[in-house]
Amino acid sequence: MDRRSALARCLAVSVACTLALYAYSWSVSPRILPISGIGSDDVGAMVRTEGHVRSAESLSSGGVKLELLDYSDFASISVYIPGKTMAAIQSSSSMVPGAFLRVAGEVQEYRGEVEIAVSDASAVQLLSPAHDNAVNLGTLALNPDTFSGMQVLARGEIGDIVPLVDRSKIMIASGGDSLWVEFSGSGTPRGKVDVFGKVSLDERRDRFEIMAVGGSDGILPHPSPVPANYSVVSLASLAVDPAASEGKLVAVLNVTALAGEVIGTSFSLSDFSDGGEYTVSCMAFDWNWQMDGRGIIDGMIVKFLGTWSYYGARAQWQVASDGFNLRP
């Protein structure tokens, strides 16, 4: 073989190797694509994309399936993360609905749907947590189903502030002592009353109450006859050690009934966006607006962190939180 032929062959091999390396690098270096740009033609390719977590589902295998949503066009895609990979992700506890993520992985097809499979913990980055997920009110109002179950930070002018009162809860008081009573009778007991019921632990509120909810139980004007099998106890003794009377039928006499317990506050947020004025309803459970010392009044601009969900009892979409998450 002459020198010229050998050189040509060397060049050919060099070009082939270069092309092979380029093809390999193309296959392992993720292409940066928006969610809407990822389709069945990309199956087998490595891609990188960003989106907000719309839902997070734990799988029986120990893995997690996320649904990522692009706010710009509401395109979405599933992301599968195996259990071992998920366990190695330091920010895994923050990967909840509303969090903003960047993920990289191989596009694959599962049950006819395109998804991204992540195999490396470093390929998942938390760009911002759910509590930074600010969504304008117009976007929420016009796309309610899209954001269902997501944690959002809504900003607007607060109004229509109304404390929510549970009328089935009656506080009884005497001499500085007090106790809650669960009452299912008609009317609203007021003034001096006698209470007949069973002492029980309300696990959700972590407190003892008197259950006056049927039969001989009840709240009657004072004085009233004590039913058989009921033990007369003082409110003072119950307030000190209610557990000692748990499960017993008690009669608490000559106490003052104060109707209703504030269980939260409802309000609205309004803002101008997308060329119009939008208003959304909000619910802050376990927040008594009247007892808040910061002077929050109608017309203030606030930020409220909560979950966007449909509230069947009022037939409306709302931002709701189980805790106090109002942010002036």
What does this structure look like?
The chain has 328 residues and is mainly β. The chain has three domains: 30-132, Beta Barrel (OB fold (Dihydrolipoamide Acetyltransferase, E2P)), CATH 2.40.50; 137-163 and 262-327, OB fold (Dihydrolipoamide Acetyltransferase, E2P), CATH 2.40.50; 165-261, no CATH class. The chain has helices at residues 3-28, 83-87, 137-142, 235-240, and strands spanning 31-32, 46-58, 64-69, 76-81, 100-110, 113-117, 124-128, 151-174, 177-183, 191-202, 207-212, 218-221, 231-232, 249-273, 276-285, 301-311, 316-321, 326-327. Strands 8, 9, 10, 11, 12, 13, 14, 15, 16, 17 and 18 form an eleven-stranded mixed β-sheet that branches. The chain has a five-stranded mixed beta barrel with strand order 2-3-4-6-5. The chain starts with a helix and ends with a strand. Mean pLDDT is 88; it is low at 15-27.
